[in-house]
Amino acid sequence: MNNEFFEARPVLRYIHDYARATRISPMTLLVDVLTRVSVVTPPNVVLPPLVGAAPGSLNMFVAVVGGPGSGKGIASAAAAQLMPDIRGAVTTQPASGEGLAAIYVNRVPVPEDEGGHKNETRLHCVTPRALLSIEEIGTLGGASSRQGSTVLPTLCSAWSGEPLGAFNKMESNRLTVPAHAYRLGLTVGVQPAAASTLFDGVGTGLPQRFLWAETIDPQAPEYRPDRPAGSLPCDLSAIPTDPQPTTLDAVYQAGTIRGALGYTLTELRFPDEAYRESDTRRLAVLHGAGVQPLDSHAMQVKAKVSALLALLEGRMTVSVEDWQLAGEIMTESNRVRDRCLELMHSEMQRQKADYIADSEEARAQAESRKLESAKRRVMTILEENVQGGEIVGYRIRQKCGKYGDMCYRALSELFGDGRIEKVGTDTGSDSSSQWTLAPEYAGL
């Protein structure tokens, strides 16, 4: 990302300068900050339906690409320094699809004075927000590879703000989270060599839901500049307060935000340009135009980014400039994603070549060992036949047993080493020639 982008606003310039002063990629720091803005935003603040009829969620997923020790965790820590208050969000790692719902909800006893019976429980919202951080994508891959794991499809649903949890036969074990009643931010560290955990999920839409950044900064100055003065010049005052805990409990118990529960959605306002671009893209799909699979959720990600840029500025209205800046971020995100995919394929090809080379070497070593065994067997046969004189090649092969396929090669090499000799006329064929031990080996 060029420096002109970061000069567009004081908050972007501050993030850029802070990143340079702490030896972090400015774009990585920016996406981490945007994720934290998402997390502090109440779950009932949503995107308008730029296409279709359903509102969109501000739940934000970020993939930070870099090798081991490249600074993925440092950027997250720096973002926490710039924006420490995330309204008590739970910070953890997703272990399973079912565990994701358990972050937000548990079951508590129904008080007797409210008509509760023995062992009767009801759902209680523990928290409306969570920030998940996975330092290495392999951790997510390990969780998703377990038999029956639902973590990846559950994450896809969570990104869209869809209901979490599943109906369980036993009510005491039933944990469900209604749509648009929770906020989720997710940051994942991705080593290109292990990126298949994400890219293998193209069919489910997982990698398309991420905003991508990388830890490298080729334009980083040789001399480390000072940190910028003051604090991050952002204004989060426009972000509404959370719904009342009693309202959240009522929504969770009802399993829906609909009805007379006092839980209303607040839609951010978007410029006409966003509607036009989203509609044009959707119309192209309806007309049968092919869409690159990795770009299938590009408009939704762009809408989230532009909304978070507006909230960072203290506005519930997305401006044309927000939309345009989000477009620049998406261009960089696509570049990083495609580069990560390219590096992943290169690493897979290298590993395949190494595997083939190792296999060929192993086969060569095994063949060499078998040839040496065949040589020893031939020498033994000729030693046992010393009193009987020479022996024809095909008879030696018959006596070699499991080393028969190596017999003639063994004869040729032993002859070249001077350990055995041909007797009589050289037929030109190892199988029809007569063989005996060389004199110096005949007494062994």
Oligomer designation: single chain
Low-pLDDT residue spans: none
Number of helices: 15
Question: Can you give the mean pLDDT?
Answer: 87
Content of β-strand: 5-15%
The portion of residues assigned to helices is 40-55%
- Name the shape in a single word: elongated
Q: Please state how the strands of the largest beta sheet are arranged side by side.
A: 3-6-9-2-10
Largest sheet: 5 strands, parallel
Order of helices and strands: HHHEEHEHEEEHHEEEHEHEHHHEHHEEH
Structural class estimated from helices and strands: alpha/beta
Rg over CA atoms? 34 Å
Report how far apart the termini are: 78 Å
Strand tally, please? 14
Would you spell out the secondary-structure blueprint of this structure?
Layout: H1 3-6, H2 10-21, H3 26-40, E1 45-46, E2 60-65, H4 72-82, E3 90-92, H5 97-104, E4 105-109, E5 121-125, E6 129-134, H6 137-144, H7 151-159, E7 164-165, E8 176-177, E9 183-190, H8 196-199, E10 210-214, H9 245-254, E11 266-267, H10 272-286, H11 298-312, H12 320-384, E12 391-392, H13 393-399, H14 407-416, E13 420-423, E14 434-437, H15 439-442
Parallel strand pairs: 1-11, 2-9, 2-10, 3-6, 6-9
Antiparallel strand pairs: 4-5, 7-8, 12-14, 13-14
Helix pairs in contact: 2-3, 3-4, 3-11, 11-12, 12-14
What would you note in describing this structure?
The chain is of the alpha/beta class. Helices cover 44% and strands 13% of the residues. It is built from 15 helices and 14 strands. The protein has helices at residues 3-6, 10-21, 26-40, 72-82, 97-104, 137-144, 151-159, 196-199, 245-254, 272-286, 298-312, 320-384, 393-399, 407-416, 439-442, and strands at residues 45-46, 60-65, 90-92, 105-109, 121-125, 129-134, 164-165, 176-177, 183-190, 210-214, 266-267, 391-392, 420-423, 434-437. The strands form five sheets. The protein has a five-stranded parallel β-sheet with strand order 3-6-9-2-10. A three-stranded antiparallel β-sheet has the order 12-14-13. Strands 1-11 form a two-stranded parallel ribbon. Helix 3 packs across helix 11 (298-312), helix 11 crosses helix 12 (320-384) and helix 12 packs across helix 14. The longest helix is centred in the last third of the chain and has 65 residues, at 320-384. The mean pLDDT is 87.
